[in-house]
Amino acid sequence: MKIKLLDHTEVDQQETINKMFDDNFYYKELNLDKCLSYSTLKWLLKSPKWFEYMKRKKQTDTQALRDGRLVHTEILEPNKYMEFTFVDVSSKNTTKYKLAKEKYGAENTFTFKEKYMNNRISTAFLQNDACVKFLKGSETEVGQIVELDGIPFRGKADILNREEGFIADVKTTNDGLKDVELKNGEIKNQFAFTIEKYDYDLQAYIYTMMYDVPDFYWLVVDKTTTDIGIFKASDDTLAKGELKFQAAIGLYKAFFVDELIDLSQYYKTGEL
């Protein structure tokens, strides 16, 4: 099956999926000039101008991204985790660390402090039988590229089980996993607000469409307490994600495909 990319080139779907195991191919060659992703739709929902800025901006390796890479790799790709280099230094500004980074690459070089801090989170996940159960019989870090509403999308599922029909996404949170009583007496977990805050409902909808599975789960570790939360995306949550998807795609087509609106003239108006 052929997929038409945003730059109008065509690629073989399965050949492209096979190449996605290589992070350099996934992030650099299959870049945002060629296909959209969950992250880019989040930018669009924030603002078409923000989407354009972030698309052109050189992505920096923030501490949050580094921490996330360590946790995900230790849990989902332990063989790759063993290839990381950990340096016993007090600071990344030391000569020892800089030499290691030059030799092994910034994306593969970490401090012992980073290792120990994130190993605490990974260990909490891997010692929890309910979390580990999702890994049994499943594939991890599974790439996918498909067309949704005529637009090419790329993605990687943390945990995919085609036989049981689910995707599970490993998340960490600083927001907590406390149950909160609302004014109407309803009890809601704090992570429900995190889903809305970071548009995780959008991700859940996109991934169930991309991989053609009905169920989506979040496997969450609280960074402070290492408490575990396992939450299934409800039909209502997936419906909210679908509405966000439609809104984002509408913005993308209006501004960047049909060019109905000059981005420099974009503004919001109303009576407040």
Remind me, CATH topology? Lambda Exonuclease, Chain A
- Mean of all residue-level pLDDT scores: 93
Q: How far is the N terminus from the C terminus?
A: 50 Å
Reported CATH architecture: Alpha-Beta Complex
Structural class: alpha+beta
Strand content: 15-25%
Portion of residues in helices?
40-55%
Using DSSP, what is the number of strands? 11
Give the CA-based shape.
Answer: globular
Enumerate how many helices there are, as a single number.
12
Total domain count: 1
CATH hierarchy, class: Alpha Beta
Query: Main β-sheet, in a few words?
Result: 5 strands, mixed
Strand order of the largest sheet: 5-6-7-10-11
Low-confidence stretches at least 5 residues in length (pLDDT < 50)?
none
Provide the succession of SSEs.
EEHHHHHHEHEHHEEEEEHHEEH
Description:
By secondary structure, the protein is an alpha+beta fold. It has helices at 13-19, 23-29, 38-46, 48-56, 63-76, 78-81, 95-104, 112-126, 129-135, 190-197, 200-211, 235-257; strands at 2-4, 10-12, 85-87, 109-111, 139-148, 151-161, 166-173, 179-181, 187-189, 215-222, 228-232. The protein has a single domain, classed as Lambda Exonuclease, Chain A (Alpha-Beta Complex), CATH 3.90.320. The strands form four sheets. A five-stranded mixed sheet has the order 5-6-7-10-11. It has a two-stranded antiparallel sheet with strand order 1-2. Strand 10 (215-222) and strand 11 form a beta hairpin. Helix 3 (38-46) packs across helix 4 (48-56) and helix 5 packs across helix 8 (112-126). The radius of gyration is 20 Å and the shape is globular.
